[in-house]
DNA sequence: TTGAAAGCGCTAACAG
DNA sequence: CTGTTAGCGCTTTCAA
């Protein structure tokens, strides 16, 4: 392997000082065109590129963003990851990925590791944050943005969709469809998204004077949702819900599989199903799932904007919590009330 | 934000030299238990953790692996990414992700950026590698492993499944099922995976004296596959294939949608479908897709092993190309020959 | 086993 | 505008 090409080598070849080389590669530094040309020429000949790590050390800015994810089985996240990585790349940042199982201590450990890399910021997708760790980041001066989760606690920025409103819309749609026995398969109780979706759902239902006919625990996992669906629907017809709101699409698919293929019921003939997220498979015709769309584009854009604001002005006002509107995408998995059209 | 805690601060508090602190945090360095205890105590009190970047600068090892991906819509990759990241994390490495569109120059640019981070190795998933860039990495002394692709060129390590054998199995299964008009929807021609799958498929077919009844271009994209399926199947019954091998699951789903929901044909009654990858949705009952399983676990394990070998012994023998066996998973989307059982 | 000293490759004042 | 001079926080000789 060839010798390492340093700025010093380039400087020698170009006949300038080493700092001149540095300046040429530092946007906004003052260099004469003549020097710049000489340096660029020498750099090109040598194949020189600045060492990002060295730069990070002295400048204190690594241009690395740590990303913690725990849940790539939910296809909302690959999409988000892709968009996030692209958006950050455009701003000259790169993403260091850390997988975290939702285990208690694990996330904390992972965040410590992230901090070791002197990241400029952290995005936590679908993971909860202990206050210990929040403080640790604060004290390290590293801004954190929660993605698709939030903490009630002050001072932690978060970007979500408006899950409460989304839950309401699901219920309203089912109500308008004339359903009488509306059930819910909930996600993992530890998630703010789950809590808000259920709260919104319940609020609309009770406003209409209807109870939640049945409630299953899906934990945001396909397996758990399948079990929940079995005990919810494998019952005599008169005890069976005629509609179910499933707290995310990932679970909704396995719920639909149980309803149609294990129990031989028809969707939406016997049961209407509404999901949440609008991941790509929701649009596949075999599912054709009516669902609340989380707009990954917008959520990512807002996340990046928030992060940049926090990085550039660390002493800014209290970090913002954003909740983006969440359109109902009407497809074929739930009976459509007369005259109702999709919001998407 | 509190002051930065450096090894020097810890040294002062522990009453030892700064290098003593360094040694305590360097596995395998020689320190007395007494010093170690003092240092650890001081470090804990101060919340000290070594700065990975500084360490990387002097040691030349960043413990960062660059990962280039281009294709997260194919759900084989999120799975692989998750497993890869986990496996690497266990070995004390972390993954810096770079999204690359398959555009010609783009990958090269991305790899340059990766190199700027002084990564210890690079994994390229589903992206081709120009020989320019291969040389660049070589000269920078950074080992590269191709994941789910290979280059014919010597000297580039690669991990794939045995796509030729897989293609053969697909054909043999369809043949054994008694199909007379077996078609193919191909992936992107630039990919070695596509070429091998098709070659294997053709080899078994011609060995049985059958032609490829029809061939569509799916490009590994759902949209393209949909169009290909439309023109392949929306024809008079006697010109219609009775079976189709689709070069990956991602495309197979949209092909199935066209066949069943747009054209009202039955699977496997009118048409048998076989895919490739065995991504999670292939097991969802609404698709229940017979497919060749790419064992992400094994592929990732092999990738990590290869990478570690290359990192630890840079002057090792010519990098290895591995092709892992690929079992046929028999489900309901293709007619099952009598007495045939799944390999998975 | 330990401390002192010399950098890793770069940026950021500071004079000139 | 440009060169000189200090480091960034750490590992690693080299003597002691």
From TrEMBL, chains A, B:
<dbReference type="InterPro" id="IPR046335">
    <property type="entry name" value="LacI/GalR-like_sensor"/>
</dbReference>
<protein>
    <submittedName>
        <fullName>Transcriptional regulator, LacI family</fullName>
    </submittedName>
</protein>
<dbReference type="GO" id="GO:0000976">
    <property type="term" value="F:transcription cis-regulatory region binding"/>
</dbReference>
<keyword id="KW-0238">DNA-binding</keyword>
<dbReference type="InterPro" id="IPR010982">
    <property type="entry name" value="Lambda_DNA-bd_dom_sf"/>
</dbReference>
<dbReference type="InterPro" id="IPR000843">
    <property type="entry name" value="HTH_LacI"/>
</dbReference>
<keyword id="KW-0805">Transcription regulation</keyword>
<feature type="domain" description="HTH lacI-type">
    <location>
        <begin position="5"/>
        <end position="59"/>
    </location>
</feature>
<dbReference type="GO" id="GO:0003700">
    <property type="term" value="F:DNA-binding transcription factor activity"/>
</dbReference>
<dbReference type="Pfam" id="PF00356">
    <property type="entry name" value="LacI"/>
</dbReference>
<keyword id="KW-0804">Transcription</keyword>
<dbReference type="InterPro" id="IPR028082">
    <property type="entry name" value="Peripla_BP_I"/>
</dbReference>
<dbReference type="Pfam" id="PF13377">
    <property type="entry name" value="Peripla_BP_3"/>
</dbReference>
